[in-house]
Amino acid sequence: MAEPGDCYEEIFQLVCHVLRKAKRRSAALYYTLRGKPAPASAGRGNRRSGGNVNGDRHHLRHHRCKDLWKDMRRKLWGIVESKYFSRGIMVAILINTISMGIEHHNQVR
User: Fold this and answer.
1) Window from 45-49, 63-67, 69-73, 74-78 with minimum mean pLDDT
2) Contact 54, 44 (CB under 8 A)
3) Distant-in-sequence, close-in-space partners of 79: CB < 8 Å, separation ≥ 6
4) Which residues contact 52 (CB under 8 A, 6 or more apart)?
5) How far apart are CA 74 and CA 91, in angstroms?
6) For residues 72-84, average pLDDT
7) Between the ranges 2-11, 18-27, 100-109, where is the mean pLDDT highest?
């Protein structure tokens, strides 16, 4: 059975992918508008031949995103599991119940 956080991890990876792609495209547009050739390191390599010029950097970025996501999940888990969070939720439910009761008190059916 899959963990509940798996779909969020996939969404986070998709967002990281979209941001990397936007960065590459904006850099290419910048160099095109400036009339300069893109630096040699800006290429993605030839994927069909299996050679990726920036493979190590991409791998490191992927691990940074993964580590960032794991740290964020750990921190959020700690917040959600704290007694203060549970008490806050209970107070919010109590306030909501009281406000709904006051709103509908002495109303004709």
Assistant:
1) 45-49
2) yes
3) 85
4) 44, 45, 46, 58
5) 25
6) 89
7) 18-27
